[in-house]
């Protein structure tokens, strides 16, 4: 039951209103929460980058970056057959679904888990931001508000949850059933991503909200 942790940085809050992805990272984990591989890229949104003071990405940073359709098949391949994990994962999945649909790349979600929602079972206090959850779990995120930094931090947080169950979390059976219910899923193909596309990553760090 492999996991794929994702995070995105975006131009705003709503793909329905024309906001786009600026950056995406995927970190794949094994059943125990150990990192198998990582992938990231900046993206050219074809519009203003939005709030640089939040995500730290400037217009200059995305010059030469691929547009999403150039990496769409690779992203779908990385996630296929995996349970997608994220902190407030529905936000990222809204953007991912919109971008994949615009690129005409089909994708069926095998299952999803939200580390923000799961925090109520593992961490104290009412605040559930990634920063607060990481602090409570003893995780250091030196690159907050970068897609890869937040994805790696979320992966560590998820592994922290997994350790409470000795490798057999309460959601295991439901996730396995969901994966097996996917029609016509070629498991070998699902676990094999397409060739690595052109990527573009950050070359400098800007001040971003914490």
UniProtKB/TrEMBL annotation:
Q: Which SUPFAM superfamilies does this UniProt record tie to the protein?
A: Ribonuclease H-like
Signal sequence: where?
none
Sorted alphabetically, which keywords does the UniProt record give? Answer: Exonuclease, Hydrolase, Nuclease
Task: Spell out where the chain crosses the membrane.
Answer: none
Q: A Pfam family name for this chain?
A: RNase_T
All copies of domain Exonuclease, residue ranges: 2-167
- Establish whether keyword Nuclease is in the entry: yes
Keyword Hydrolase in record: yes
Q: Identify a single GO molecular function assigned to this protein.
A: exonuclease activity
Identification of the protein by name: 3'-5' exonuclease
Species this protein is from: Flavimobilis rhizosphaerae
The record lists the lineage as: Bacteria, Bacillati, Actinomycetota, Actinomycetes, Micrococcales
């Amino acid at each position: 039951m492999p996991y794929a942790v994702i995070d995105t940085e975006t131009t705003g809050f709503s793909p329905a209103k024309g906001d786009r992805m600026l950056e995406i990272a995927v970190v794949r984990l094994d059943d125990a929460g150990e990192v198998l591989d990582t992938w990231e890229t900046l993206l050219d949104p074809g519009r203003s980058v939005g709030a640089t003071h939040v995500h730290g990405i400037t217009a200059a940073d995305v010059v030469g970056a691929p547009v999403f359709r150039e990496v769409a098949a690779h992203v779908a391949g990385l996630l296929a057959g995996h349970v997608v994990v994220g902190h407030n994962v529905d936000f990222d999945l809204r953007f991912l679904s919109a971008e994949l649909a615009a690129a005409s790349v089909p994708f069926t979600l095998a299952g999803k888990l939200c580390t923000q929602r799961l925090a109520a079972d593992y961490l104290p206090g009412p605040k559930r931001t990634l920063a607060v959850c990481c602090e409570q779990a003893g995780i250091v995120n030196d690159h907050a508000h970068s897609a890869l930094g937040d994805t790696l931090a979320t992966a560590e947080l998820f592994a922290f949850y997994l350790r409470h169950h000795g490798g057999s979390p309460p959601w295991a059976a439901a996730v396995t059933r969901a994966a097996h219910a996917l029609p016509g899923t070629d498991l070998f193909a699902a676990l094999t991503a397409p060739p690595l596309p052109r990527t573009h990553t950050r070359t400098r760090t800007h001040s971003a909200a914490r």
